Amino acid sequence: MSPLPWHDIDTVLLDMDGTLLDLHFDNHFWLEHLPQRYAELHGVSRVMAELELKPLFERHAGQLQWYCLDFWSAELNLPVRELKLETAHLIALRPDADTFLAAIKRAGKRVVLITNAHRDSLSLKLEKVELAPYFERLISSHDYGFPKENPQFWDALHADIDFNPARSLFIDDTLPILRSARNFGVAHLLAVSEPDSRQGPKDTAEFAAVGDYRDLIAGL
């Protein structure tokens, strides 16, 4: 990966899950813990639980309700917030993410968190990992009513924080979201090579990817 042109970057927009935080927590919760607890609480087999959950997950993926704990609590008749607490010990920073955050803040960059996470998920993670002091704003897509995949999210974000897309860096682990940001005009885009520490590197298609956050600090 080429060094970032930090002299051309004023604003750094950062995703949370899979970008700053290890995606293992979320993957484990949605793919392992939730199906198991769904089976136990609804009195069905684990296989049946997965058969019932899979089409629901597929139907709502990439939409705002996919990220909404209130929606899933009602849809599944489960206390999703409380179930998340049962695995909260898995919430963890990706290696050297805090080193990177401290460096860009010291360099005087404007740093904004933009996440699709529901406010309750965001609060839970901020209780476990001290992220808030690094950011000017902590923005959930639920604040605007559109997920980051939707072009209307970017219009709302621009109206809210008045950033210059041509002088902004955005890092995210989800390719459709990076493409949405690119379509809006965000000039500097990076994917994440290994969002889940237990699953190995992923294909980041046309996007350069960060593997080690220390590599991004060069030239700051």
From TrEMBL:
Protein name (database record): GMP/IMP nucleotidase
Keywords annotated in UniProt: Metal-binding
PANTHER family, alphabetized: GMP_IMP NUCLEOTIDASE YRFG, PHOSPHOGLYCOLATE PHOSPHATASE
SUPFAM superfamilies named in the record: HAD-like (SSF56784)
Cross-referenced NCBIfam families: HAD-SF-IA-v3, PRK14988.1
Gene: yrfG
Organism: Pseudomonas izuensis
Pfam families: Hydrolase
InterPro entries attached to this UniProt entry: HAD-like_hydrolase_sf, HAD-like_sf, HAD-SF_hydro_IA, HAD_sf
